[in-house]
Thiol reductant ABC exporter subunit CydD (Sphingomonas adhaesiva), 553 residues
Amino acid sequence: MTTLSLDQRRGRQRLLRDLTARDPRHMIARGLLIGDTVAGISFALGLAGGVAAIATGGRVWTWLLLALAAGIARGSLATLSQRIGSDLAADAKIALRTRVTAAAINQSVGGARTSGELACTIVDEVEAVDGHIARFAPIRTAATLSPLIVLAAVALASPVSALILIGTLAPLIAALILAGGAAAERSRQQFGALARLSGLFSDRLRALPLLLAYRATDRERVRLGQAADEVAVRTMGVLRVAFLSAGALEFFAALSVALVAVYAGFNVLGLLPFTPPEQLDLFRAFLVLALAPEFYLPFRRLASAYHDKQAAETAADRLLALEADAEPVRPLEVHSAPALAFDQVSLRHGSADADAVSALSFHVEPGETVALLGASGSGKSSLLGALVGTVPVREGTIRIDGRALESGLAVAGSAAWAGQAPLLVPGTIADNIALACPCSPREAVADAAEAAGLAELLRCRAQGLDSLLDGRGSGLSGGERRRIGLARALLSEAPLLLLDEPTAHLDAEAEAGLTTAILHACRGRTAIIATHSETLAAQADRIIRLERRYEAA
Ligand SMILES: Nc1ncnc2c1ncn2[C@@H]1O[C@H](COP(=O)(O)OP(=O)(O)OP(=O)(O)O)[C@@H](O)[C@H]1O
């Protein structure tokens, strides 16, 4: 069983409270539910008055009109409260998704959560706060005030009946607390299973072509089936506890209504085996009988919404854990070609045992083009990654225009970066090239595509720049995908240009053409080009050679 610290509990309560705290509709929804109780009391009064009037030959219609008006008010107030609650929940989910998405984006590179699990958190787990805000929160307030109001009304008519109601409350609350504790743990297990299934499903979906090619679909189907079975088992566990708590509540509610009914009926008929401290007439007896279920109604509503509370608390714990693991990246902005200084810099990837780069020092002047040359694994990409915030600096300092690139700071927003595996999104080739500068004119996109060596590809496609790509870049060679990333960097006017092996896998003629375009793009900005090509490196202002060395610290 997972035990949470006091701080974690407080954090979770704060998160759930803050979602609606500043919204006045929150109080309106609660007020309406309490109004619903008052309408319930009026309804009981109308019924009791009507029955007494029939027995005594009084004015039945007045009482029945009161019951009718109260009945209509009652339905409307509860519905309105629910509607306001749903609107509040919708707004709260938008706010929470914004917050959780930011935390998901800022998860450290190579973190433990898969993208499928993150998607499950943003979509499903945020959804779990809906019931808490829309139903549970207003019902909880009503459940503390409404029974007191009903109890006062019952006590006015029959103090003994009020005492019976109080007496039956203790076992009911105990049943609720016991069921609540069990539900919390089961709810946590259900969320964990659901996140595992979502993660597995989306990751396998992404790898579907590979799974088909390697005929691994049967194996993965079994694995997905097991994960789905686990969700089913956990969900049944949650439902079992929910039904059990509802059953216990109904039992005690029915028992106490029966006790009140027996007492009030026998009191009116004078059949009690002892002398009662009060003598009820038909009106008062019927009134307490009609009010007894009203006393339990808020608790029954609370029990039916209790699962919403557990689900929201589990979701809140997971969302807070996600936020705790996030490392927000703050932008370090530069507006003109910056000077870069690497001082005894050691870089190490999160999961690695050795440094990718050890105690490296060099300077780059503003507007200078530097080529990083070195064997595979010597740390060229890692150096570029450190600048854009994807690789942590273990030791030493990187300065940009004299400002230290501290943990959490990244110059990515001011850099044009073409990595070895550029991100592609579903859309046209033009959309993908203009990803970082969506307002770029069409001619500029076409020029960047041409400069990056995409002319031949575009000629072969009937729709040219408007040819559609999926998120995997299916139908493009690895080199073409890379050139789309390069075109994106060439299109950008960012003052820092970071290129990772821009001419890899090209023949000499293509490389020469691309080199000219790259050097043209480097003009007026500070550029670092990681490359294996001596030809390209020779065109740079300066070459920095990296040596491959593994050094565990
Ligand atoms: N995500 C990662 N997690 C752990 N270690 C990594 C990761 N990425 C790279 N490394 C390690 O860091 C070292 C430097 O890798 P890097 O990719 O920076 O080299 P490179 O010079 O760019 O290589 P290449 O020329 O093959 O692209 C290598 O030893 C590599 O194994």
